[in-house]
User: Which sequence fits this backbone?
């Protein structure tokens, strides 16, 4: 079949690899003009890594990933260690080491693996139509393309989602702005092999190691919607928000080069919904389950979509439409559960539920990490990747 994919991000590009390796003629369109993904890096937990392994990219992804052996929480203002523990149990219980990776590096790997001859950048899709046997997409320059099936991996503001659902699905503000980017590793901020998080006052400031002796940093500030687009200096916003915090936080702020790597993003998500398919059109990734980053499962969930979609099409016994509906039924509950888990986590960590954040801080003090490991593994263990083995 000829399969058209709208969106060359993590979900769209990984789906392109999987479906082309099943023998389909895949073509990908994206409105971006070059590989400039939103967000500096992402967490690839064991479920996401396993999908990439299945796609034949195990060595490449391991080379991109930072070595994250330990996890620690520190008091935001004093820098005192609240807890520190090994992440080895995650690998032991899931069979796969997790990796933080720079998003641009991973996206470039996926796009190169698909083949740049299959990817057309600078093409904004504006409408979709289907006649029962084919699907046609129209672009803003008036050009069209027609295929047997279309996948919308076009993000949180998905045009394809509106075609699938009839529209009306709105995003919900999660209550905070996330600042993220890449800085050189510095022991004054945290160990090079550790996920280090400073917490206090409903805010957090964290670093994870990625390849190239860099830290991926992400900083959350609870604030009303609209502040993220203010004209003022984003680093000045950070200095104001973290005034009086620990020396490690100040070292991080000093290392940020806004011209090189700093993103400021309001965090929104979408209420879980069950309609991902209509006829020969389906959605995946943020188009289907826009998720707050609080449990680090956004990209992993998109990769799970790729696995489930490919398996459904590979085991098509009735029709394309039936295969897509099986994909939908296999994913909506799981993806919706992760959206809700991330919401619950955001409320707990950002002070949105009175008393809950202080109770969480208290639970961190002196813990051996077993409860945190249990939560991380709990997000992974329901993955569809655990039902399949081998490679395409």
Assistant:
């Amino acid at each position: 079949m000829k399969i058209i994919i709208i969106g060359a991000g993590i979900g769209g590009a990984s789906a392109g690899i999987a479906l082309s390796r099943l023998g389909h003629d895949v073509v990908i369109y994206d409105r971006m003009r070059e590989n400039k993904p939103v967000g500096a890096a992402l967490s690839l937990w064991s479920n996401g890594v396993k999908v990439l392994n299945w796609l034949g990219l195990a060595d490449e992804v391991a080379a991109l990933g930072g070595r994250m052996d330990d996890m620690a929480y520190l008091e935001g203002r004093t820098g005192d260690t609240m807890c520190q523990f090994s992440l080895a149990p995650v690998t032991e219980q899931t069979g796969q080491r997790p990796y933080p990776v720079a998003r641009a590096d991973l996206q470039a790997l996926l796009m190169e693996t698909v083949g740049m001859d299959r990817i057309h950048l600078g093409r904004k899709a504006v409408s979709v139509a289907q006649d029962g046997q084919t699907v046609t997409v129209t672009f803003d320059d008036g050009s069209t393309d027609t295929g047997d099936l279309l996948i919308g991996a076009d993000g949180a503001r998905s045009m394809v989602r509106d075609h699938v659902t009839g529209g009306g699905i709105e995003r919900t503000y999660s209550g905070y702005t996330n600042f993220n980017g890449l800085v050189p590793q510095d022991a004054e901020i945290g160990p090079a092999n550790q996920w280090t998080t400073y917490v206090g006052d409903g805010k957090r400031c964290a670093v994870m190691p990625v390849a190239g002796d860099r830290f991926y940093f992400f900083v959350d500030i609870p604030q009303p919607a609209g502040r993220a687009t203010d004209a003022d200096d984003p680093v000045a916003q950070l200095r104001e928000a973290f005034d009086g915090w620990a020396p490690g936080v100040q070292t991080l702020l000093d290392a940020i080069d806004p011209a090189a790597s700093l993103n400021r993003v309001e965090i929104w998500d979408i209420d879980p919904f069950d309609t991902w398919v209509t006829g020969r059109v389906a959605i995946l990734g943020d188009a289907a389950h826009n998720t707050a980053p609080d449990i680090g499962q956004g990209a992993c969930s998109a990769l799970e979509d790729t696995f489930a979609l490919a398996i459904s099409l590979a085991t098509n016994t009735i029709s394309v439409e039936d295969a897509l509906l099986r994909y939908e039924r296999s994913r909506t509950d799981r993806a919706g559960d992760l959206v809700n888990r991330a919401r619950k986590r955001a409320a707990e960590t950002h002070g949105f539920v009175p008393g809950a954040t202080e109770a969480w801080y208290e639970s961190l003090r002196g813990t051996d990490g077993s409860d945190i490991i249990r939560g991380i593994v709990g997000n992974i263990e329901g993955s569809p990747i655990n039902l399949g083995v081998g490679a395409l």
